[in-house]
């Protein structure tokens, strides 16, 4: 259905792929193969698909992505915050797969900063490979700009400052203690900048922020509304008590209190697709945290 609609409407598809081992286990139980192979098998993948996360893609999955021209959205802060793992980004880049950088939204890393995403993208790979040269600051900056544009098929219009392209420009003020001293401007952007260095932002030739002032909206009012909405959301979800959690007595969550997937997650598995089942998402402070249905079809 999604593939058919995308073909008819000529729009891109974004879908999570291989974010967690749970996804792989579920795909294996349902289809006898991992999700990348399954999506390839049913003709879902293509150059108009952005596969989000791909943390657990293996060499053969990366080859599938390359063959289909499928793009990857890399969200390092989310992958670390949610303990999903470390995506094989260097291997993807070596294979010629386009990888754009993203935040995954503030719900999964408490931030929307592409500056944080850039720094963590580099640091995660360096740490995981114990190789400080595994990825360059220049490549990371490209992933946040032109490769992101390639991922959404807009590289002819945006993603780099060039004659003939739309004037999308971010201006940074390097005159602060965090950016001093500077040895290389790109390394300074990736490793030193915190985000507050941004003084002006131009989109398609129009300033949306100039000299620190956001022109299009009342920034203070938007922030107030965001807090009000977030408070209401946690109340509706019944998670507002977590906002007043006690100071933990342990350095990490005790084993039995660690968020974990219930063994009930696979009712009916294996044994066909009849019921995908209910996922008991986890236990926080010894209480059921979230319970939702992954999918149910008979
Ligand atoms: Zn996501």
Given as residue ranges, the uncertain stretches (5+ residues, pLDDT < 50) are 261-298
**How many domain regions?**
3
CATH class of the largest domain: Alpha Beta
Structural class: alpha/beta
Please outline what is shown here.
By secondary structure, the chain is α/β, with parallel strands linked by helices. It is built from eleven helices and ten strands. The longest helix is centred in the last third of the chain and has 19 residues.
Description:
- With 298 residues, the protein is an alpha/beta fold.
- The chain folds into three domains: 2-156, TIM Barrel, CATH 3.20.20; 166-217, Urease, subunit C, domain 1 (Roll), CATH 2.30.40.10; 251-298, no CATH class.
- It has helices at 2-9, 21-31, 35-41, 59-68, 76-81, 89-95, 114-129, 137-144, 146-151, 185-192, 219-237, and strands at 13-17, 49-53, 71-74, 99-101, 169-172, 198-203, 206-210, 213-214, 277-284, 287-295.
- Helix 7 crosses helix 10 (185-192).
- The chain is globular and about 55 Å long.
- The two termini are 18 Å apart.
- Bound molecules: zinc ion.
- Residues 16, 52, 104, 108 line the site of zinc ion.
């Amino acid at each position: 259905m999604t593939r058919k609609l995308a073909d008819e409407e000529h729009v891109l598809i974004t879908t999570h792929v291989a974010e967690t081992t749970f996804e792989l286990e579920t795909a294996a139980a349902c289809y006898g193969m991992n999700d990348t192979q399954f999506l390839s098998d049913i003709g879902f993948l293509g150059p108009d698909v952005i596969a989000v996360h791909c943390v657990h893609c293996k060499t053969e999955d990366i080859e599938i992505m390359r063959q289909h021209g499928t793009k990857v959205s890399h969200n390092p802060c989310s992958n670390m915050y949610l303990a999903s793992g470390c995506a094989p980004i260097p291997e993807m880049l070596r294979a010629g797969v386009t990888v754009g950088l993203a935040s995954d939204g503030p719900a999964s890393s408490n931030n929307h900063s592409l500056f944080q995403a850039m720094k963590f993208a580099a640091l995660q790979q360096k740490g995981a490979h114990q190789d400080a040269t595994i990825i360059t600051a220049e490549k990371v900056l490209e992933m946040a700009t032109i490769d992101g544009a390639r991922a959404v098929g807009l590289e002819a219009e945006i993603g780099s400052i060039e004659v003939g392209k739309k004037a999308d420009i971010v201006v940074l003020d390097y005159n602060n203690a965090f950016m001093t001293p500077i040895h290389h401007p790109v390394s300074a952007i990736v490793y030193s900048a915190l985000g507050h260095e941004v003084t002006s932002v131009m989109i398609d030739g129009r300033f949306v922020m100039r000299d620190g002032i956001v022109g299009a909206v009342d920034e203070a009012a938007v922030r107030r509304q965001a807090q009000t909405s977030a408070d209401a959301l946690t109340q509706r979800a019944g998670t507002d008590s977590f906002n007043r959690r006690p100071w933990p007595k342990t350095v990490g969550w005790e084993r039995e209190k660690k968020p974990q997937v219930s063994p009930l997650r696979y009712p009916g598995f294996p044994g066909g697709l009849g019921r995908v089942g209910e996922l008991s998402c986890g236990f926080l402070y010894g209480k059921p945290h979230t319970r939702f249905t992954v999918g149910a079809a008979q």
